[in-house]
Structure formats: C-alpha cells, structure tokens
Amino acid sequence: MSSDERQKRLGELQTELVRLRTMIKAGGSIENPSRVRELRKAVARILTVENQPAPAPAPVKKVEKKKKEDKKKKEKKKTKEDKEE
C-alpha cells in the first residue's frame, strides 16, 4: 500500500471503530463484539508501518568499486610476477 492508501484505510477503520464504540456506550449490542479488537489491531498495524523509517538504499556502487579495485590489484600482482620472471 502507498502512504495515501494507508491514510485512507486508517480513516475508514477509525470511523468504524468510533461507530462501534458509540453503539456499545449507548447500551446497544453489536453483531460481532470481536470486531472492535480486530479494528484496533488493524489501526495499530497501519500506524506501525507509517512510523517506521524508510529503508536506506543498498550501497551498490561501493561493492562495484571494491570489485574493480580487487581486479586492479590482481592485475598489478600478475604484472610484477611476470617482470620478476
């Protein structure tokens, strides 16, 4: 889900949760009492995802540079060995 979709879904869940809570407080009974718990958990999950920091991009360029440096070092060793012989 994108951030906008999560925010929209969060609003829907919170609205439904408020509606169910007002029904309970007014003395009415609801069809599925466990729905309140499900809504609370769903809201918590969305908020958890929203509050997590964005993952850092993988350092691909550093790995490529290291490989190139390793190749250069190997080539230098080979040339030195060839000169000694």
First-to-last CA distance: 64 Å
CATH topology: Helix Hairpins
Mean residue pLDDT: 83
SS strand fraction: under 5%
Query: Which percent bin holds the helix content?
Result: over 70%
Regions with pLDDT < 50 over 5+ consecutive residues? none
Question: Major β-sheet, in short?
Answer: none
Give the helices and strands as they follow along the chain.
Answer: HHH
CATH C-level category: Mainly Alpha
In total, the number of strands is 0
Give me the number of helical elements.
3
For the record, the CATH architecture stands as Orthogonal Bundle
Estimate the global geometry from the Cα principal axes.
rod-shaped
The radius of gyration computed from the alpha-carbon positions, rounded to a whole number of angstroms, is 29 Å
Main structural class: mainly alpha
Number of domains: 1
Short descriptors:
85 residues; mainly alpha; Helix Hairpins; 0% strand; rod-shaped
How does this structure look, described?
With 85 residues, the chain is mainly α. It has a single domain (3-84), classed as Helix Hairpins (Orthogonal Bundle), CATH 1.10.287.310. Helices cover 78% and strands 0% of the residues. The protein is built from 3 helices and no strands. The protein has helices at 3-25, 34-51, 60-84. The protein is rod-shaped, with a radius of gyration of 29 Å. The N and C termini lie far apart (64 Å). 1% of the residues are buried. The model has no long low-confidence stretch (mean pLDDT 83).
